[in-house]
Every structure is written in C-alpha cells, then in structure tokens.
Design goal:
By secondary structure, the chain is of the alpha+beta class. Strands 8, 9, 12, 15, 16 and 17 form a 6-stranded antiparallel β-sheet that branches. Strands 1-2-3-7-6 form a 5-stranded antiparallel β-sheet. Strands 4-5 form a two-stranded antiparallel ribbon. Strand 15 and strand 16 form a beta hairpin. Helix 4 crosses helix 5. The mean pLDDT is 96.
Length: 296
C-alpha cells in the first residue's frame, strides 16, 4: 500500500494553519498548501489516512482551477515544484504532487454551496422544514431527487466546526449585498459549467462547495475545487431518483460510520483496512474518470 502522509513538518518554514486535511505554510504574500492524506468525517479527523488522497485533491483542484479560470481568477500560482521558492525545495520528495503555491488572500467567511439535487444536509433540512436555507421547495420531494432549479445555499461553520446552512439574506448581512450577489452568480456559473463537463464523463454533480477570497479588491476562487471532499459525484448510469446514491466521494466513508453505534463525537472509531482501500480506489477512480489520467 502507498505511503500515507498524515502530517507535514517543514523545519524553517512558518506554519500558517493546519486544517482538517491541509497544512498551510506562510511564504509572505504567498501560501504553500500541502494536501495530506487525512480524512475527516462529521468534523472528526480520523487516525487513519487514505493512500493517494492528498495528491488527488491537490491535482484535481489544479485541474478545475485551470478549467474555470475564464469564469473567475483563482489563487493558484503553480503545482510544479520548480516554480516553488528555494526555501521549500529541500522538501521536494514530500511535496511532489501534493502541494500548491497560491496567492495569499483574505478569505470570505462563507462557504458557497450550490445544489442541483436534494441530498445530505439539504435533504434533512427539507424533511424538517420543507425548505433549504430558507428557499421553499415543492412538497413531496424524495432523497436524491433533482431540484426544480439549481439553488445557492451558503453555509458557515458553527463554534463546534459543523456546517450550518444560512439564508442568502444572512450572507448579505455578513459580507454585503453586492459581494454576496457577485459570488452567488459566479458559483452558479461554475456549477453549470462543471455539471456540463461532468455529464460528458458519466457523472452527475449533485452538489458542491466553493470558497472565495479577496486580494487587492479582486475576488478570487480559493481553497479546493470540485473534489471528492467538497462535492457529491453520482454515476449517471446508476442514478435512481428517490433513494440514497452510491457516491464517488467521501460519502462512502460517511455511510460506513452511519452503520456504527457512534455518537459522532471525538475520538472516532478506527477505519478498517478494507474501507481504507475501497475509499482510495473510489478517489482514484473519480480522478481518472474526470481527468482521463491516472494519479501515478
């Protein structure tokens, strides 16, 4: 099995932030984002990693940043080691394939979620309220049903780290009306473009999450983009409306933990070797189907 990287340490390079999956290093006006093989479920980071996951997330984000740069600029500078600053080159073997040099932006503190299908937290909220992020939906919709139209459902992190859907009005109050509307329209355009592209690859993009930042007054797409960690991919040929779908993304791991008697509080139960291997294969297959290439 491939080596798993759970944590990085670059002596002499200032650690900017350690997220659930990514380790960020401060390079002045730039950041070095290193994707580890960590995986989180229900906001708990597991003790086990997923082989090749970090490289897949990094290279798939790079793929989409290039594909969508005509719609909006992004923070990516390069994923090529030869373009990285000299002080990180001693760590080449660790960084190869899993690191991205990016512009340092001021993140906009709202996650921009676009949904074309009713699934996940949106389905749970719909069953309870008949709406999602205060957007009323027709009665009688079932899990995984296509929505009457694509919807924009922003979210924020709670103090416990959980995502909470908020209304667009709430987003406007938080970051301003003009910026909110601009980001909403960009998010919808990206979803439309990516959905069309994925359709040709045999995938349905059920929903996805995007993040934005600002730099010198310009809005930039940041973080990750259309990965198995941030999106739901369903196979068109196996899609059946009205039921739970087999996803080519992190949902496979969530579904496994739903079968356990666990209160979704840390520490999480261990992830069995067969689930780790299957998850790695799902991520690799998703990458291959989307890009037409193997991750190796």
């Amino acid at each position: 099995m491939k080596e798993v990287i759970l944590k990085t340490d670059l002596p002499g390079i200032k650690l900017f932030k350690r997220g659930k999956v990514r380790d960020l290093y401060d390079l002045g006006d730039k950041l070095l984002i290193v994707c580890t093989d960590r995986i989180s479920v229900f906001d708990c980071v597991l003790s086990e990693g997923i082989p090749l996951k970090g490289k897949i997330l990094n290279q798939l984000s790079a793929f989409w940043f290039k594909k969508t740069e005509n719609l909006i600029s992004n923070h990516m500078i390069s994923t090529d080691i030869k373009d990285f600053p000299s002080q990180v080159l001693p760590f080449k073997s660790l960084l190869e394939g899993r690191a991205m040099l990016v512009k340092k932006t001021r993140p906009i503190g709202v996650e921009c979620v676009v949904r074309g299908y009713l699934s996940g937290s949106a389905y749970r909220e719909y069953k309870e309220k008949g709406s999602v992020a205060e957007i009323p939906l027709p009665a009688g919709l079932k899990e995984s049903d296509p929505l009457p139209s694509v919807i924009f459902t922003p979210a924020i992190k709670s103090s416990q780290g959980h995502d909470i859907n908020i209304s667009f009005k709430k987003m406007q109050e938080m970051v301003g009306k003009k910026l909110s509307e601009t980001i909403k329209q960009i998010s919808l355009k990206i979803y439309e473009y990516v959905s069309h592209f994925l359709d040709s690859r045999g995938f349905i993009l059920a929903d996805t999450k995007m993040e934005f930042g600002t730099l010198d007054g310009e809005i930039l797409l940041i973080d990750e983009l259309i990965t198995p960690d941030s999106s739901r991919f369903w196979l068109k040929e196996k899609y059946i409306p009205g039921k739970h779908q087999d996803s080519f993304d992190k949902q496979f791991v969530r579904d496994y933990f739903e079968t356990l008697k666990w209160g979704k509080n840390p520490p999480p139960p261990p992830l069995p070797p067969d689930i780790i291997e299957k998850t790695s294969k799902i991520y690799q297959d998703t990458y291959r189907r989307i890009t037409g290439k193997n991750i190796f």
